[in-house]
Amino acid sequence: MKYISYIFFSFLMIACNGQEKIDLSKLNLNEPIEKVIDFKDKNALEVNTVEYPFCFFIEREDSEKFTFDGIDLKGQKVFFQINSERLKTDSITKFGGGHFNMQGFKDKTELSKILKDYKADPVIYGFRIEMKTPNLKKEILKKLESKYGKGVKNPNTDHGLYWNVKKENKYIFYAPDYDRLIVLNSSNLSKKCYWDSMNGLIDFGGCNNEEYTKDLTKNRTDPKDIKNKPVLKIDKNWNINDLTLGSATEADFVTSSINKKFERLITNGPKGELQEVMQQNTYNNFYFYFIPGKNGENDPKNNILKGYSINDFEAVDVAFANGLKKGMKGEDVLKIIDKNDIVGDVGLKYSNYLEIKNPTYKINLIFDDNKLFSSMYVLKKE
Question: Which of 134, 189, 191, 233 has the fewest CB neighbours in a 10 Å radius?
Answer without folding.
Answer: 134
